[in-house]
Structures are given as structure tokens and as C-alpha cells.
Amino acid sequence: MAIYNYRAKDRRGEFVTGKIESSTTVLAEKQIEDLKLIPISIEEASSFYLKDFFPAFYDVTKKDVVVFSRQLAVLYQSGVSISKSLELLIEFTRNRKFKEVLLKIKFDVENGMTLSKSLAKHPKIFSEIYVDMVELGESSGLLYDTLVKLALLTEKEITVKTKVKRAAFYPKIAVSLIVTALVIFLGFIMPRFTSFYNKFNVKLPIETKILVYLSNFLVNEWLPLFIAAAILAAGAAIYLNSSYGRPLWDKCKLKLPIFGTIFYKSAMSRFVRIFGLLYKSGLPVNKVFELVKNETGNKFILNKIDDIQTDVSKGKSITESFKNSGIFSGIIIQMLSIGEETGQIDEMLARVADYFDEELDHRISMLHASIEPIFLTVIFGTVLFIILAIYLPAFDVINFAKKG
Q: CA–CA separation, 135 vs 140, rounded Å?
């Protein structure tokens, strides 16, 4: 449990401040609403924000957009005008860059521009999906529901991305530490042992010869090696960002051992959740495809969505088009088919997305449980190999010294 400082407005429109104990910000917000208050800002009491001191190094994050969406929804539902709501949000926004953006949005709204059009002027912060959904909410009179759905969608997206990053974090750190340790050892420590053994002219075992060779190669050829690595990295970056290389790499990522399943389930969860939400909003199917394909984060899947869009435009059913693409699992096809028959595609896809989220949690838990022993074995094996390579010749040195 944590202590949160909050500022809110009561039903008379007066500001109220206080503290509340809760496990998460979302639960704290609900507790404040239960007090018949309109939450304006909620911050953990012990929080320390570097961005308050170095604002130039911090961009507007998706979390900022989530908070903005929730707070604007609550204020709007309470009868506060959009202009006044923006004014209140500007006052309590910690992120200075976001505050500048909100000032521009408020200026546009006060000069007769709709909220959606004013948001559209900041595409780096508010995606095309976000803007189109807000526009639909404005035209249908369901802006509150739309903003809440957008906040939930963004929160889910943040959660999935965080899980995937955490899954890849441990392997990246472990590999980086192993490589760094080997470079330091071969470049700075092994040459000293090599010089020492050369003085005694002892016969080196195969393990030591391998380390001596690698050490000499690294010490003598480090510049060409560095240049080659830089050229290789630059070439790989150019290729992977090309129209041919990126889809191929994204396809390979989906087939990687262990991690491929995680990448696939995270991409599918994101795709079906957004597709279901947009489809329910009443947008034309072609527009839905145009919006959702740029949100998958995978160029290979994006190309497949282009094929699906082409099939649908030719009159094929959504289920048949998805099935023909060959990338969607059986559960997606099955639930989509049920959704088409019952007219509840959005609900069926939301269930599929929740299923993939649960599967993602399970896979990541399994990954953490299985990958640690693998890396511990690799680290132990590397250390054992180095110890044997260093100390086996020492016995010959000792025998040589005794004979001498």
C-alpha cells in the first residue's frame, strides 16, 4: 500500500486536497470518486520526479495520455466544459512538454475548433486512432465512454509492452555482462598470463591455446575488428529498416525459440483488441484496417493485414479473409466466426485479447523459470573453462621450477 496526495473538486466546484492510502493509482482514483469528488491529480507521496528538474529530457508518454484521458472523461461527465476541463488539467500537469501541448489545444478549442481536430495537430502524442475515436465520441455524444475506452486500451498497450520488455531484459543483461567480462579478460588479463607462461616455455593445453589465440587476435586486431563490427551494425540497421528487410526480420522474430511465442501473442493481443474496439465504433471496415495495421508493431503482420483488407474489399467475409492470411491462430478465427454470426465481433475479440494477455503472463513466467538455469549453466561453464585454461599450465610451471 502507498500514500497518495490528491487534488480534486467537490460538487460545488471548490478544490479539495488530501491524502489517501491505496495499492495503485487507479484504485486511489476510484476511492476519491467514492467520496463524491472529481479527481484532478493523484501522485504518490514519496515520488521523486527527475523530469521536474530536467524537463528537456522527458517526452510526453503514453502514461501521460492515459491520465489525461481519464481526468478529461471525469470532468466532462461532471458537466465541466472542455475548455474549463483543459484549463484545470493544464494547471495540474507535471510534464511541462505536455502542458505546452495542452495550452495549444485549449487555445484551438476556445477559437472554435473541435477537440478531435485540435488533438490531430499533435500526431506524435495523439495517434490517428485516438483522434478518430474522439471525433466519433463528439459526434455521438458518447465522449465520456470513448475517453474511458481509450484510457483502458492505452493502459493495456503499456502493460503488454512492459511485459515483453521485462521478458527480454534478463537475457540482454546476461549476454551483455558475459561479453563485457570476456572482452576485459581477453584484452587485459590474459596477455599477462601469456607472457608469464612464455618465460617458462611450458607446453600449453588446448584450453589455454584457445584463450591465447583469442586474446592475441583481440589485442592485435582490435581496430579492424571494431570497424568491421561498426560496418556490420550499420548495414544491419539499414537492412532491417528497409521495405524488404523489416518484414523479413519481423517474420523471423515470430519464429524465434521461446521468444517467438511471446512476440506473437503480444502482437495478436494488441491487434485484436484495437480491431474490435474500432469495429464497434461504427467506422467503415476499410478505415478500421487502415488505422489498425499501423498499430501492430510488426511489418510482416502489417503486410498480411493488407491482404486481408484486399479480400474484404472483394466481398469475402472477415472470418474467411483472416483465415486465408495464415497468421491468425484457431482461437481467433473461431471467436471471429462466432462474432460475425452473432453481431458481437468486438466482444469476442476482447475475450481473445484477454486470453492472449493471460497466455503472455504464463509464457513470461515460464521464460523466467527456464532461462535463469540456462544462463547460470553458460556462465558456470565459461568460468570453469577459463579457470582450467589458466591453472592447468601452472602445474607444469611448478614442476619446471622444482626441476630447476
A: 9
User: For residue 228, which amino acid is it?
Assistant: A
Residue 42 C-alpha cell reads as 493523484
What nine digits make up the cell of 147? 475517453
| CB-based contact 261:363 (threshold 8 Å) | yes
Average pLDDT of 255-260? 81
One fold for 1-48 and 143-404: no
Residues ≥6 apart with Cβ < 8 Å to 382:
178, 182
End-to-end CA distance of the chain: 71
pLDDT category at 46 given cuts 50, 70, 90 is low
Q: Rounded CA gap, 59 and 386, in Å? A: 45
d(CA 403, CA 394): 14
- What does the domain layout of the chain look like in residue ranges? 1-48, 143-404
Cβ proximity of 63 and 152 under 8 Å = no
Fold of 143-404: Receptor-associated Protein (1.20.81)
CATH 1.10.10 for the 1-48 domain, yes or no: no
Angle at 114 between CA 109 and CA 117, to 5 degrees: 105
Q: How far apart are CA 149 and CA 239, in angstroms?
A: 38
pLDDT in tens, 68-94: 998 898 888 888 889 988 988 888 787
36: left (phi > 0), else alpha (psi -120 to 50), else beta? Answer: left
Question: In this structure, what C-alpha cell is assigned to residue 260?
Answer: 517467438
Report which DSSP code applies to 327.
-
Beta strand pairing status for 15-22 and 38-44? unpaired
Q: What is the pLDDT of residue 401?
A: 62
Residue 19 phi, psi dihedral angles, 5° rounding = -125, 150
- Spatial separation of the C-alpha atoms in residues 235 and 238, rounded to whole Å: 5
What nine digits make up the cell of 267? 502482437
Q: Which residues of 379-403 are buried (b: 16+ CB within 10 A; e: fewer)?
A: eeeeeeebeebbeebeebeeeeeee
Q: Quick one: DSSP state of residue 24?
A: S
